[in-house]
Amino acid sequence: MNFELTEEQLMIQQAARDYAQRELIKDVIERDNKAEFPTQHVKNLAELGFMGIMTDPKYDGSGMDTVSYVLAMEELSKVDASASVIVSVNNSLVCYGVEAFATEEQKQKYLKPLASGSVLGAFLLSEPEAGSDATSQRTTAEDKGDYYLVNGTKNWITNGNSASTYILIAQTHPEKKHKGINAFIVERNSPGISIGPHEDKMGMRSSDTHSVMFSDVKVPKENRIGEDGFGFKFAMKVLEGGRIGIAAQALGLASGALERSVAYAKERKAFGTEIGNHQAIAFKLADMAVKVENARHLCLKAAWLKDQGKPYGVASAMAKQYAADIAMEVTTEAVQIHGGYGYVKEYHVERLMREAKLTQIYEGTSEIQKIVISRDLLK
Amino acid sequence: MKILVLIGNVPDTTTKIKFNADNTAFDASGVQWIINPWDELALTRAMELKEAHAGKIDSIVVANVGRAITEGTLRKALAVGADEAIRIDADPLDAFYVARQLAEVAKDYELVLAGIEAADYNGAAVGGMLAELLDRKSVSAVSGIDIDNDALKISREIDGGSQTLKMDLPLLAVVQKGIAKEPRIPAMRGIMMARKKPLNVIAPVEAEALTAYNSFELPAPKAACKMIDEEQAAEVIRLLHEEAKVL
Predict the structure, then answer these.
(1) pLDDT tens, residue by residue, A267-293
(2) Distance CA A241, CA A59 (A)
(3) Looking at the complex, does the CB of residue B68 fall below 8 Å from at least one CB of chain A?
(4) pTM of this prediction?
(5) Which of B188, B193, B226 to mutate to test the interface with A (most CBs of A within 10 A)?
(6) CB A52 within 8 A of CB A69
(7) Which of A177, A211, A232 is the endpoint of a domain?
(8) Nearest-angstrom CA–CA distance, A20 and A46
(9) Is the separation of the CB atoms in A55 and A62 below 8 Å?
(10) A59 near B CB under 8 A
(11) pLDDT at position B247, please?
(12) What CATH number did the domain enclosing A144 receive?
C-alpha cells in the first residue's frame, strides 16, 4: 500500500492550487454576487488542460489519471465550486461518456473540441418530474428512420446555456420502460432547441443552470450513443464516474473551509488569546480535519479503483455521500468558528456553505447514494 | 542562441523554518520544495523571449546543483517549458561551490540568467561569482530583458529611475522582480511532456566550500500589539520614543 502521490500528480495538484489561489480567488465573490459565468477562467483552464483531464491525448485530452482529476477538483473547489462544477461536468459526464461509449467517428467529431475545451458540454438527464427517479423519462426521441424526433424538457442543466454539445437522455420505446431509453449527442444550435431562464440559485451561482426545451428537434441517427436502448445503462455508468468529480468537489469545499478556519483560529483573539487556544474551537477543528481526511481517502480510493480498471460504483457512491454530507457539516462549523465574520461574504465561508448544500443534491442525492451502497450490501 | 537558467531548489515560502538540535543546520524534514521565485521569473522571461523571437532561441536549459531531492523542482521547470535540465549531483555547500560547479556547464551558453538571490539563504552571490569564473560580462539587478537584433536590451531599476543598456552576447544577467509579470502555471500537456524531456545528471568537479556556518537562529517572535486609547496621544509618543526607540 502506498499513499505517496507521483511527481506528476503533485504537479497537477500544485497547478490547480496556483490557478485557484492566484486567479479564481480574485473575482469569485463578485461572480457569485452577479451570478456571472466565468468565461475567461474556463478559457484559461482549458489552455491548462483542465477540461479534458482524463481524456486520451489522441482526442486532445490531457491523458491524466482519475487520481489527478480528484486532486485538481479538490484544489479548484477550495476556492470556486462554480468553476469546478463546469470542469467536472465537462470531464466526467461529457468527455468520459463520449470516450468510453461513443464510436470513433463521434469521438473525432465531438470529443476533440470538448476535451481541448474549445467548446463546453452538458449532460441532460434530469427532468421536471424525473430527478432521482431517472427511469421515468418524459422526453421522447421518436425513431423516424434517418433521424430521431426529440420533444420534451430537461431541468437543472449545468452549462445549459454555455454548452455547445449536449449529451441527451430520452425515451424511445416507452413500453420498454428504462430499457427503451437512448443517449444522444445533440448540437445545441439544432433547430427547435430553446433555453429557459438562468436559475437563480442559492450557491454555485456563477455556473449557469438552465432548463432546455426540445420541440421537434431532429437528431441524426448516427448521433445515438451505443445500441438502441443503451441510454439508461449509459447514464448510470457515466454517473458512477461523475460521482467521483462531485465527491472531490465536496471534499474541496470542506478542506477549503477547514484551511480558512485554521488560519482564522490562529489570528482571531478572544478572552486574551487566539481562539484556536480555546478547546471549544480546537476540538471543532480536529473534528473537521478528521472528516476531511476521511473524505479525501474515500475520493482517492474510488479514483484509484477506476484507474486500476476495477469496479468503483459503490466506492464512488460512498465517497460522494460522505464527502457531500461532511462538506455541509464542515462548512457550517467554519461559519460558526468565524462568528459574525463567517456570515459576511468577504470571508468566503458562507459561500462555501451555500455551495456545499448542492453537493448533497446533484448527480445523485445523498439518499440515492445510500440506496446504491445498501443494495450492494444486501444483494 | 541557447539560454541557461539557473534553478535554485528552495523551501516553499510558507514553510515553517526549523533547525537541527544544535542550530547548525536547516532541518529539511517535511519541507515542500519549489523553484526559487526569482529563478522561476527568469525562466518565465526566457520562455517569453523564445515565443516572441521565433527561431532566435534554440533551446532553454535549466541547471541546478543538488541531490536527487531537487529533481521535482527541475521537472516542474521542464513542465513549464524548459527543453532540458541538468542536475549537478552535489550538495550546494555555499555560493562559491555552487558557482564553481555551474561554471562547468554555463560556459556553453550565450545567455545565462540567474535569479538575484535565493529565497532560503538570501546569499545573492552565485550570479556574480559565476560571471567572474566564466570571465564574462554581467549585469546585476536586471528588471527587463529583450532581444535587439544580435544584442540584448536590458533595463534595470536605479535610484530615482531606470537605466537601459545595450549588451552584447555572451552575457550573464542577474535578474530580479519585474523581469516577468508572474510565473507560469504548467499546463497538463507540459507536465506530461516533462516526463520525456532529458534530465541529465552529471558528476561535480573538485571544488571547495569557502563558507562555514556556525549557527542559525530564528527571528524573535513578533511583539504583541499595544492598543492605546485614542485620547492618549502623549502616551503614543512616549512609547515610540522610549520603548520602540524610533523617535
Answers:
(1) 999 999 999 999 999 999 999 999 999
(2) 19
(3) no
(4) 0.91
(5) B188
(6) no
(7) A232
(8) 14
(9) yes
(10) no
(11) 80
(12) 2.40.110.10
